[in-house]
Amino acid sequence: MAEIEWPWQYSFPPFFTLQPHTETRAKQIAAWKSLILEYYRITKQSIIDIREVHSSPVFNNATINRKLPSEMLLLILEELSKSGNATPLDKTKQRWLVYWHTLEEWGEIIYNWAQENGFTGSVCTLFELTQGEDTVNQEFHGLDTEVLIRALKTLEANKKAELILFDDNQGVKFF
Fold it and tell me: For residues 23 and 3, what is the distance between their CA atoms, to the nearest angstrom?
């Protein structure tokens, strides 16, 4: 796993407290959004459970004894949702899917790979896409299955692919 390069703000205690000044708060939220997306990209994680965030180093800087409050994280996740980089998984908004690329971007990345590697007109299993030898050097290798399915649905909506999901069969046909 790649090493996380923490931004300077991460060691600045006020970064973990919602700032009252509008411009400062906007910069703070933007910095948190970037940090979360970068952290989840590097660690290849996709799910944030607000009830468990304090066990994650991205939300808990033990060096300066600061933790991001759950209410502030929810605010940041709402902002990520507006940009297409997060979606709540439940009505209470306790669990979220985080995408370091929007679902449309993921779809295009996967579709471009399928075209470049001669997979148009053929079926790939979802396992092959995320765990197969053909995708080891691809950014979507190791991608969470739920994120993958949602990304492939964007391709399906654009008539570039068809999802095959029945019983234990999970695949996609690229057009």
Answer: 31
Beta bridge partners of 165: 170
Q: How far apart are CA 9 and CA 134, in angstroms?
A: 39
**120 DSSP assignment:** B
In angstroms, the CA 164 to CA 137 distance is 25
Neighbours of 122 (CB within 10 A): 11
Q: Is the predicted pLDDT of residue 1 greater than 60, yes or no?
A: no
- Beta carbons of 88 and 81 less than 8 angstroms apart: yes
Residue with tokens 């590697």, as numbered in its chain = 117
Phi, psi (degrees; rounded to nearest 5) at 166: -150, 145
Among 110, 35, 116, 41, residue whose Cα is nearest residue 77: 35
31-68 residues labelled b (16+ CB within 10 A) or e (exposed): bbbebbbbbbeeebebebebeebeeeebbebeeeebeb
pLDDT tens-digit readout, 10-42: 999 999 999 999 999 999 999 999 999 999 999
Spatial distance between the Cα atoms of 85 and 76, rounded to a whole number of angstroms: 11
pLDDT of residue 4: 85
- Rounded to two decimals, the pTM is 0.91
Q: Which residues have a Cβ under 8 Å from the Cβ of 92 and sit 6 or more positions away?
A: none
Three-class DSSP category at 6? coil
